[in-house]
Amino acid sequence: MAEVAKVVIHPNENQSQQNGEGKGNENQVSRHQEVGHKSLLQSDALYQYILETSVYPREPEAMKELRELTAKHPWNIMTTSADEGQFLNMLLKLINAKNTMEIGVYTGYSLLATALALPEDGKILAMDINRENYELGLPVIQKAGVAHKIEFKEGPALPVLDQMLQDEKNHGAFDFIFVDADKDNYINYHKRLIDLVKVGGVIGYDNTLWNGSVVAAEDAPMRKYVKYYRDFVLELNKALAADPTIEICMLPVGDGITLCRRIN
Ligand code: SAM
Ligand code: CA
Q1: Contact status, residue 101 vs residue 125, Cβ threshold 8 Å
Q2: Whose CA is nearest to atom 2 of ligand 1?
Q3: Does 143 reside within a domain?
């Protein structure tokens, strides 16, 4: 429970960032709102427009059901947003992913987005320290007819990765890996995942804009968990940008997702 609380995120808390909050930098706020600024997402209304125009009308029934079920759960702020779920689903289809991994499942919204995108014989190795939350969403995943693609492992992910690395056949075996768990371990995950993902495969690290705190001043008021993980996220972002074994692309979807394509 403590570990779960450690990784809580709030998708909606980003809105102030998307408004160009940048604490203490008024110029940035006004520049952000100028026509022609490279980022178009200027308001909550624009985000709602995306959800209502292109996400909700195309959201599979099972994902809607899981989203609504999760909304009633006390830790619902951890869930993947509907627009990010749609993005993951599209990405997996674009790269023809078949063998995938997810670290950090919660009630399974991103897991279901993945499972629905994979072919019938696709596989997801899904890991979480908490089985109870996974089992909350499981009936919806079963009803959607995609549970057979999922192998759920309860427990910390790191030892599982270490064990997998012992077996040569796991090296380069994954087309896609989604990391959405304990942010203080992302660098440790990366060191291992880079050998498990195939050359040309993709690792997605979630929450790399960390509630927008990556650009907040040191003394800016921040929730405790945001402050605690901020330095880990900043370190990760620097490390990924400097890693010659990957190409990267940081997208302002959800709380920020950095896609890493293994190149050697
Ligand atoms: N991807 C999920 C979704 O779409 O709803 C959200 C995942 S939530 C932000 C983070 C999850 O990581 C929690 O369910 C938590 O139990 C799990 N977690 C935390 N530490 C972990 C660890 N060391 N290994 C595996 N899972 C962990
Ligand atoms: Ca997340």
Answers
A1: yes
A2: 105
A3: yes
ipTM tops 0.85: yes
The Cα 161–Cα 237 span in angstroms is 21
Return the closest-CA partner of residue 137 out of 105, 89, 171: 105
User: Which ligand places an atom closest to the C-alpha of 136?
Assistant: 1
List Cα–Cα distances, 153 to 105, 195, 256, in angstroms: 10, 20, 26
User: What is the residue-wise DSSP string for 205-236?
Assistant: EE-TTGGGGGGS-TTS---HHHHHHHHHHHHH
Classify residue 11: in a domain, yes or no.
no
- Distance between CA atoms of residues 150 and 110, nearest Å: 12
Question: Is position 174 within any domain?
Answer: yes
Please state the rounded mean pLDDT for residues 185-204: 98
Residue 243 lies in a domain: yes
Q: What is the pLDDT of residue 119?
A: 98
Please give the Cα distance from 198 to 208 (Å, whole number).
22
Query: How many Å lie between the centroid of ligand 1 and the Cα of residue 210?
Result: 15
Backbone angles phi, psi at 183, to 5 degrees: -65, -25
How many domains are contained in the chain? Answer: 1
